[in-house]
Amino acid sequence: EAGVAQSPRYKIIEKRQSVAFWCNPISGHATLYWYQQILGQGPKLLIQFQNNGVVDDSQLPKDRFSAERLKGVDSTLKIQPAKLEDSAVYLCASSPGATWNTGELFFGEGSRLTVL
Amino acid sequence: GNSVTQMEGPVTLSEEAFLTINCTYTATGYPSLFWYVQYPGEGLQLLLKATKADDKGSNKGFEATYRKETTSFHLEKGSVQVSDSAVYFCALIIQGAQKLVFGQGTRLTINP
After folding, report:
1. Which residue has the higher pLDDT, A8 or B2?
2. Do B60 and B80 touch, CB atoms closer than 8 A?
3. Cβ of A109 and B41 within 8 Å?
4. Any chain B CB within 8 A of the CB of A93?
5. pLDDT, tens digit, 9 for 90 and up, residues B58-86
6. Touching check for B70 and chain A: CB below 8 Å?
7. Confidence class for position A11, pLDDT limits 50, 70, 90
C-alpha cells in the first residue's frame, strides 16, 4: 500500500515570495491534516479536512496561508507571502476516518521550507 | 488547555542500556495517549498507545503505562539498540475531539 506522498521535499525561497506544497494521502483515507513542525518543536496542526470540507483551521494564519482539498483526495497548502518564521517542515497526514477513536495518523516524509 | 510536556533532549545512551523518556500531560477531558517515532529520513509513525487509565501500550520492546494519578505516560525500554535512534513524540487526543496534540519531541541516539 502506498503511503502519504508529499512534494517538494525541500524548498528555499526569499521572504515575501510564495510557495505551494502538495500532498496525496493514502487511498481511501477521508481525513487529511497539515501540520507545521518548527525545529525543536512538536508538530502543530494547521488545518484538518474531512473529505473536502474543513473541520479545524483554528491555527492556520489565514492572512498568508491557504489550503484546499478539491474532490476530497489530494491537497495543496500555500503560503503567500512567506515570512522568516515560516521556516519549518510541513507535514501531511491522513487517517481513514475520525481520529479520536484510534489516534493513528499516517504521515508523509514532510516538505522542508527555508525562508531567507 | 490540552498540552504535552516531554523531557528535554537529546538523550544519548549505549547499546543495551535502559531507556526512560518522560512525558506528562494536561488535559481538560479524558485523553488517549500515544507515542510516535520518527526515524531518520522517514515520516512520523505510531509506536504505541493507551486509551484509558492503567492501560499499558507496548510495541517493539517499548512500553508505556497511562498513569492518571500522575498525569504521565513515560516511555521505557529495557535494552535499547542502535536502530532505536530516532526522535520520539508523546501525544494526546481528547475523546470526541479530532486534534492530536504533540509534545516537543526527544531525540534519542544509541551508540554501539
Report:
1. A8
2. no
3. yes
4. yes
5. 999 999 999 999 999 999 999 999 999 99
6. no
7. very high
Per the CB < 8 A criterion, the answer to whether B21 and B108 are in contact is yes
Residues in Cβ contact with A77 at an 8 Å cutoff, skipping those fewer than 6 apart: A20, A21, A23, A34, A46, A47, A65, A66, A67, A90, A92
Instruction: Please give the Cα distance from B90 to B65 (Å, whole number).
Output: 12
In 3D space, the residue among B68, B73, B74, B72 whose CA is nearest the CA of residue B29 turns out to be B68
Amino acid B2: pLDDT: 87
At B71 the three-state DSSP class reads coil
Burial class (CB in 10 A: 0-12, 13-18, 19+), A88: buried
When pLDDT is averaged across residues A57-67 and rounded to a whole number, the result is 95
Residues B69-108 as b or e (16 or more Cβ within 10 Å = b):
eeebbbbebeebeeebbbbbbbbbbbeebbbbbbbbbbeb
Look at B46 and A105 and tell me if their CB atoms are within 8 Å: yes
pLDDT of A1 higher than 70:
no
Cell digits for B25?
500531560
pLDDT in tens, B22-44: 999 999 878 999 999 999 988 89
